[in-house]
């Protein structure tokens, strides 16, 4: 949800949002790994971490995004762990791309169109992609209707493993790493039974690497569900407000 323009405004540092929609930490790890192969390492890296991102009910590993790099040894090792069926089938001729053809067909056609038109620039130059859906919940009761008995997070070891690998890869490249959680809709918090326990575990993980886990709990827009598309995804306007606050925080607290 970070809009890089706000970070650049306050820090003067060129900023890129490398995050992908609904990606888990294994996907984050491969994305950073592949990025660093072709680009200069950034000075700072902010990784979004919440109790939701440690639970298999949220986010997923989108194998199709790596189909063209599946023969890279690091990519292949992650595929074998996170998508065993694909890893087994991909060596059959054409199956490397055909297995998830319904996911990559549009991108392939779109890419061919860009090639024919000699389009050199991406749609989103700074990496920030607005949400694909813009409808808002009718009321705060929507958060209760989904899990009427409340919700208990289940900490997944594989998620933790790849969060750690992402942090370790960044530190090996002398990148200063920060973990953060953006504000969530406050009315949903009471229904998340073990949220505080998960937050404490995330803090312990951050401490083990001597890095910060930063939470933004007092931003006003979190008081109203009208500012969220889901309990954790803010509207475009709220995203801008958070990005503005984050830019100020980085400039005044982390870079001073």
N-end to C-end Cα span: 24 Å
Q: What's the story with the biggest beta sheet?
A: 3 strands, parallel
Multimeric organization: single chain
Alpha-beta content class: mainly alpha
Low-confidence stretches: none
Approximate helicity band: 40-55%
Trace the largest sheet across and list its strands.
Answer: 1-2-3
Number of helices: 11
Number of strand segments: 3
Instruction: Give the overall silhouette.
Output: globular
In percent terms, what proportion of residues is strand?
Answer: 5-15%
Query: What is the helix/strand order?
Result: HHEHHHHHHEHHEH
List the helices and strands and how they pair.
Elements: H1 4-11, H2 25-38, E1 44-48, H3 73-82, H4 84-89, H5 95-98, H6 101-116, H7 141-146, H8 157-172, E2 176-181, H9 186-189, H10 195-208, E3 212-215, H11 236-254
Helix pairs in contact: 1-11, 2-8
Molecular structure report:
This protein is mainly alpha-helical. The chain is built from eleven helices and three strands; from the N terminus they run H-H-E-H-H-H-H-H-H-E-H-H-E-H. It has helices spanning 4-11, 25-38, 73-82, 84-89, 95-98, 101-116, 141-146, 157-172, 186-189, 195-208, 236-254; strands at 44-48, 176-181, 212-215. The protein has a three-stranded parallel beta sheet, covered by helices on one side. Helix 1 (4-11) runs parallel beside helix 11 and helix 2 (25-38) runs parallel beside helix 8 (157-172). The two termini are 24 Å apart. The mean pLDDT is 89.
């Amino acid at each position: 949800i970070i809009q890089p323009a706000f970070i650049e405004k306050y820090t003067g540092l060129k900023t890129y949002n490398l995050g992908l929609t609904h990606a888990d930490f294994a996907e984050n790890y491969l994305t950073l790994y592949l990025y660093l192969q072709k680009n200069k390492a950034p000075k700072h890296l902010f990784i979004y971490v919440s109790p939701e991102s440690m639970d298999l009910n949220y986010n997923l590993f989108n194998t199709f995004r790596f189909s063209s790099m599946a023969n890279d040894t690091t990519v292949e090792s992650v595929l074998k762990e996170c998508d065993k069926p694909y890893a087994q089938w991909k060596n059959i001729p054409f199956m490397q791309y055909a297995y998830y053809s319904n996911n990559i067909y549009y991108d392939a056609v779109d890419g061919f169109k860009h090639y024919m038109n000699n389009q050199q620039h991406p749609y989103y130059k700074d990496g920030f992609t607005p949400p694909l859906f813009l409808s808002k919940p009718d009321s705060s009761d929507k958060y209760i209707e989904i899990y009427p008995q409340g919700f208990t997070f289940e900490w997944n070891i594989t998620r933790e493993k790849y969060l750690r690998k992402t942090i370790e890869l960044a530190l090996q490249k002398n990148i200063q790493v920060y973990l953060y959680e953006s504000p969530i809709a406050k009315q949903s918090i009471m229904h998340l039974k073990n949220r505080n326990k998960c937050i404490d575990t995330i803090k312990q993980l951050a401490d083990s690497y001597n890095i910060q886990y930063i939470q933004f709990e007092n931003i006003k827009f979190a008081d109203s569900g009208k500012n969220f598309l889901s309990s954790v995804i803010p509207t475009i306007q709220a995203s801008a407000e958070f990005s503005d606050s984050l830019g100020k925080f980085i400039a005044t607290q982390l870079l001073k």
